[in-house]
Amino acid sequence: MPKQEIAVTTDAVIFCGKSGEEKILLVRRKKDPFKDQWAIPGGFLENDEPLVVGAMRELEEETGLKVEKLHQIRAFGDPGRDPRGRTISIAFWGKIPSEEKVEGKDDAAEAKWIPINELPVLAFDHDEIVRTAIEQYRSK
Q1: 36 touches 120 (CB < 8 A)
Q2: How far apart are the first and last CA of the chain?
Q3: Burial 99-138 (b: 16+ CB within 10 A, else e)
Q4: Which pLDDT does position 2 carry in this prediction?
Q5: Is the dihedral of CA 48, 49, 50, 51 positive or negative?
Q6: Residues 64-78: pLDDT tens digits?
Q7: Could you tell me the domains of the chain?
Q8: Residues whose CB is less than 8 angstroms from the CB of residue 59 and which lie 6 or more positions away in sequence, other chains included
Q9: What are phi and psi of 5, to 5 degrees?
Q10: What is the DSSP string of 62-75?
Q11: Is the pLDDT of residue 140 over 90?
Q12: 137 by DSSP, 3-state: which?
């Protein structure tokens, strides 16, 4: 059997605002694939880091935002979700009490809080990740 070449990433859906007026933190991608499209913050896991630590690190690297706690959503790994190759993402969601200042850093050209009801089409399979995060967030 050939050796599998699978990359592992983490993604974070961060909510802020009161019920009915929630916003989600998005980043505009600086590089391909999906250059200039909106996405949720995330990226490749480092070899020696726990999943949640990778999600927090990527969130801070791309937006400057630090969070205390994230809740694991589930894994997303359908073939073709990333044109660079087989990638499995473990997604998380978190909530902060109010909108904090964010800025695009690292491979994010921009970071911005966007109302849930005004979300654009997102890169990769992030639309599915966000829908799943909203369901879990609202059920808590």
Answers
A1: no
A2: 43
A3: eeebebbeebebbbbeeeeebeebbbbbeebbebbbeebe
A4: 83
A5: negative
A6: 999 999 999 999 999
A7: 7-139 (3.90.79.10)
A8: 12, 14, 41, 42, 65, 66, 67
A9: -115, 95
A10: HH----S--EEEEE
A11: no
A12: helix
At 137, the amino acid letter reads Y
Mean pLDDT of 8-14: 98
Is the model's pLDDT at 53 over the cut of 90? yes
18 pLDDT exceeds 90?
Answer: no
Name residue, tokens 């849930």: 116
For 13-54, the DSSP string reads EEEESSTTS-EEEEEEESSSSSTT-EE-SEEEPPTT--HHHH
Q: Provide the residue type at 32 as one letter.
A: D
Q: What are 87-99's pLDDT values in tens digits?
A: 999 999 999 999 9
Residues taking part in catalysis: 110
Before 79, cis peptide (omega within 30)?
no
